[in-house]
Specification:
Elements (H helix, E strand, L loop, with lengths): L1 H22 L2 H34 L8 E10 L2 E10 L4 E2 L7 E2 L1 E5 L4 H34 L8 H10 L1
Antiparallel strand pairs: 1-2, 2-5, 3-4
Length: 167
C-alpha cells in the first residue's frame, strides 16, 4: 500500500515538474507578456466607445448643468394644495428673468407634464447618463494606468508587519 502511494507521489511530482516547465517556457512568457497589451487595447477601445456615446447623447439635445435636480414642491392656497416643479442647482447659476445680471438657483417648471417640466426631465436624463458614463471612463482610465505602470499587483503591507511581529 505504501509503495502505491510512493509511486503516485513520484508520478505527480514528475507531472508537476513537466507542467511547470511547460508554462515557464520562453514561448509562454511571450504570450503572458502580450496579455497586458491586449487588455490595454481593449480598455482604450471601450473608453473610445463610451466617449462616442457621450457625444451622441449631447447631440440629441441640451444637457442640464451639473449638480442640478428636479424638485417637487407644494403651494397651499385657498385651502388647496398645488404641486409644482423646479430645476434646482447647488449654487446660483441660472439668469433671472427680471434681472439677467443676477443669478438664481432655481428655474420654475410649472405643473407636472408641462412643456418646461418635460424638457427639464429630458435634459436631466441626458445629464445623468453622461455623468454615469464619465464615472465609468474614469474607472477604466485608472485600470489602464494600473495595467501600464504595474499597479495590478502590489506588495501586501500586512506581510511586513507580520514579519516585524515575529522578530
Amino acid at each position: 500500500m505504501s509503495e502505491d502511494l510512493v509511486s503516485v507521489f513520484f508520478t505527480l511530482t514528475l507531472k508537476y515538474k513537466y507542467v511547470r516547465a511547460f508554462f515557464m517556457s520562453r514561448d509562454s512568457k511571450a504570450l503572458t507578456a502580450q496579455a497586458p497589451i491586449v487588455r490595454g487595447k481593449q480598455i482604450k477601445s471601450t473608453i473610445r466607445k463610451l466617449k462616442n456615446k457621450i457625444k451622441k447623447i449631447k447631440s440629441e439635445g441640451e444637457v442640464a448643468p451639473q449638480n442640478c435636480h428636479i424638485i417637487r414642491y407644494q403651494v397651499r392656497r385657498n385651502q388647496k394644495i398645488y404641486w409644482y416643479y423646479k430645476l434646482q442647482a447647488s449654487e446660483p447659476i441660472f439668469s433671472r428673468v427680471e434681472n439677467p445680471e443676477k443669478k438664481t438657483k432655481y428655474i420654475y417648471l410649472g405643473k407636472a407634464g408641462s412643456e418646461a417640466h418635460i424638457n427639464a426631465v429630458e435634459k436631466m436624463t441626458r445629464r445623468n447618463l453622461i455623468d454615469e458614463l464619465e464615472k465609468i471612463i474614469t474607472s477604466l482610465q485608472e485600470s489602464y494606468l494600473d495595467l501600464c505602470f504595474g499597479g495590478e499587483t502590489e506588495t501586501d503591507p500586512s506581510y511586513f508587519t507580520e514579519v516585524l511581529k515575529e522578530d
